[in-house]
Amino acid sequence: MPxxxxxxxxxxxxxxxxxxxxxxxxxSTLVNRIIGRREAVVEDVPGVTRDRVAYEATWNGRxxxxxxxxxxxxxxxxxxxxxxxxxxxxxxxxxxVLFVVDATIGITDSDEAVVKILRAAGKPVVLAANKVDDxxxxxxxxxxxxLGLGEPFPVSALHGRGSGDMLDAILGVLPDAPPEDFDxxxxxxxxxxxxxxxxxxSSLLNRLAGEERVVVDDASGTTxxxxxxxxxxxxxxxxxxxxxxxxxxxxDASGHEYYASLRTSAAxxxxxxxVMIIDASQxxxxxxxxxxxxxxxxxxxxxxxxxxxxxxxxxxxxxxDREIERELVQVQWAPRINIAALxxxxxxxxxxxxxxxxxxxxxxxxxxxxxAFLGRLVAEHPHPVRGGKQPKILFGTQASISPPTFxxxxxxxxxxxxxxxxxxxxxxxxxxxxxPIHITQRVRE
Length: 445
Ligand code: GDP
Ligand code: GDP
Fold this sequence. Notes:
Order of helices and strands: EHEEHEHEHEHEHEEHHEHEHEHHEEHE
Pfam families: KH_dom-like, MMR_HSR1
Oligomer: single chain
Subunit structure: Associates with the 50S ribosomal subunit.
GO molecular function, one term: ribosome binding
Function: GTPase that plays an essential role in the late steps of ribosome biogenesis.
Largest sheet: 6 strands, mixed
Bound molecules: guanosine-5'-diphosphate
Structural class: alpha/beta
Strand order of the largest sheet: 2-3-1-4-5-6
Protein name: GTPase Der
Helix content: 25-40%
């Protein structure tokens, strides 16, 4: 069972196995057994601090990442809370969970709590009954059937007994490739046209869809909400969200703006990508930046269209560039197009911008790549030392796409400027055009 080192991380995405269980049940010993290393990271002290949490393991020709959640103590206080928090992290980052129980002790209340979390998440679980060093203890392992997790695998992490059968079971539940739900959703993409009043939303919609309200029934076998419109663009079908709100403008004065902003938020919520229309002939306003922030905070892909470009002369252009620099720094990643909805000028460029934003929104970085990248980044630009301590990134994983969301496992809290630095470098390395990125951290104290 050769354990490969950091430098030959494979290119493909590796499935992740999280090892969880109460302190002292033998998680670290078992992780060492799985990765096939002799020198123990284990010490006879519970909760001892270890420097790495993720390792690569190979069994029967298949390679996967093993994450030892042993040392995590994310904010939780009591033992039960800590174990539950571990389980939640494991569920978040792993494709499968190895749940380790000390067979000589049997089931405890915190074990039951973990089982609840695992069952609710529907993650595949392999149950290891550890410290079964000899035949005699095997009977005690059998009592772990009561956890309802299926067959307990009796193992001795210390001596290696039974670890082959357990590893076979692990391979049986680990996916070969990332699960299917990572794939792009079926059906037309959902687009919201947003922007403050009079920037040209309905003019653009009319350009794209024609003056007539287009069919909204199940043209392609898709059920569409009556306020949405199916529009054919660049050879593909797109669903434009809440076009009713754009076409039939609510004219009643009272609370108009309030309802308009509610509608905007709802449309963003239902969309995958938003086209933010800005009237380029007028100075950018707070209302513009507020809508843009809503898109980014909601985690949707974003394209910015500067409309009424026919009204933009050289002087205005000069000021607009300054306004963009000043007001739109936080969405520098969004594709920008200049258009004139009224004449149709450059409106055809919208599809390409939408496509690239959605690509960025659904970009997935394999765990191996991500950690190779993080390793380089941290080596070149370590986190500044604070009060004699240096926060460290131990392991990272992309928990989801749409939008790309990363979880960093750290020792010590990584500061916000450093997180922003990581975001910038992630974008340089992997793209993410048109998409916000979320980075969260799990701090081990
Ligand atoms: P963790 O806190 O869950 O990571 O547990 P460790 O791996 O640090 O192990 C805790 C203690 O249990 C150590 O003293 C280990 O040597 C011991 N231990 C681990 N696995 C076994 C085993 O299979 N049999 C026996 N007898 N002791 C074990
Ligand atoms: P909405 O409130 O955002 O839907 O904006 P409308 O589409 O109703 O447009 C508001 C006004 O801007 C109308 O008088 C449009 O004719 C005008 N308009 C829209 N697009 C353009 C454009 O590209 N150039 C110019 N010059 N005017 C435009």
